[in-house]
Structure formats: C-alpha cells, structure tokens
Design goal:
Layout lengths: L3 H8 L5 E6 L3 E6 L5 E5 L11 H17 L6 H10 L6 H7 L5 H6 L1 H9 L3 H25 L5 E4 H6 L1 H12 L6 E3 L7 H8 L2
Parallel strand pairs: 1-4, 4-5
Antiparallel strand pairs: 1-2, 2-3
C-alpha cells in the first residue's frame, strides 16, 4: 500500500523530496536518491498533528474558553466557532468537545472559523494560521535534515492547498532553515499514482 505522503510527493512531480500533509491531521514524509525514507510527525491527534485542521479547531476552542475564564465577551473567532458548533455559550464547548458525537474530523472542520475570521482581519486567527504554517515547516525541516536534501518540499492536504496565509508562514518557516524549493500541490494526490506506476521497473 502506498501511503498518502508518497502520493503527494509524486503528484508534486518529484521522485525525491519531502511531502507535508496538512489536512485533518499532519505529517511529513520524504525520500532521497539513495532510497532512504524519513518521517516527522504523524503521531496522531493526542500526541501531535501540529498545524492541522484538528489543531486549529482545538486551538479555537481553547481560545474561546480562555476568554470565558477571564470574563471577556466572545470575540469574532468565538462567535464564529459557536455558530459553527450550533451552541450559544462558550461553556457548552467543553461538553461538546468531549462528546462521543464529535470526533477529530468534526473539530478539524471547525478550522473554517479560524480561516474565515483571519480573512476578515482578526488578529488571533491570523496568529493561529501563522503558527500552524510554521509548525508544519518545522516538521518538513526535520525530515529534510534526516535525508540530507535541499528540497523540494511539497505542501498538500485540504488546508495546505487552500489557505494562503498558512502557505506564506510555511514558506517563511522553511526559509529560516535555508530551504527555498517549496511547492504547493496543484492537483489531488491520487494523480501521484500515475507517476509511481511509471517509475516501476
């Protein structure tokens, strides 16, 4: 079975390099010309998934609960999150977060509240997207170092392919490591199957 990260690398028209998935979860995987492989992240939502949709959704909840604890009124992010969750009080987010009816995919979908309010100019949402991009860049840099590669690094996944502020932070984070061959996937990873098949002996 070919895992998603390898498909992403192939869909990015590269046979060597590092692929980073930023979707519900997050992970980096790469391969060099010697056939050595490396990965970073991919530990699951309890241990990692930095920069993922789930991470953004969870951080939006935590932000909202911190404001509640400080006695502050809901800001734009909290209001968007409450509307997305169909509740009217930040306190209700606690039970909802721990409910059996909401899984990691549910909270990953709440990342839209962060993306939309960042687009409207809300600073906390912009900060969260910036942190997500830089966390993903750190995963990529770890895999790059393991493989001794200059690049390329290819970013994919629903968030990675569609959220420009996250992409910008990702590029900036990698530039700080001296990695400048950075690409955003422009087609679905499934198209990587064709390249992988073409490379078979």
């Amino acid at each position: 079975m070919v895992h998603d990260s390898r498909l992403l690398l192939a869909a990015g028209r590269a046979s060597t390099g590092v692929a980073v998935i930023a979707g519900t979860g997050s992970a980096a995987w790469g391969k060099n010309a010697e056939g050595e492989e490396a990965r970073a992240g991919g530990w699951g939502f309890l241990l990692g998934d930095e920069g993922s949709g789930y991470w953004l959704g969870r951080e939006a909840v935590r932000h909202s609960l911190r404001r509640m604890n400080k006695g502050l009124e809901p800001d734009g992010l909290t209001a968007a999150l409450l509307e997305s969750c169909g509740v009217d009080d930040p306190n209700k987010l606690i039970a909802l977060f721990h409910s059996e009816d909401t899984d990691r995919r549910y909270w990953a979908q709440r990342a839209t509240a962060v993306v939309e309010t960042a687009r409207e100019g809300l600073e906390i949402s912009r900060q969260l997207l910036d942190q997500a991009g830089r966390d993903l860049a750190e995963l990529a840099a770890q895999a790059v170092r393991q493989l001794g590669l200059p690049g390329p690094v290819i970013l994919g996944g629903g968030l990675g392919m569609n959220v420009e502020p996250l992409q910008s932070a990702f590029r900036a984070g990698l530039a700080a490591h001296g990695i400048t061959d950075v690409r955003v996937l422009d087609q679905e990873p499934v198209f990587g199957v064709l390249r992988i098949v073409a490379e078979l002996p």
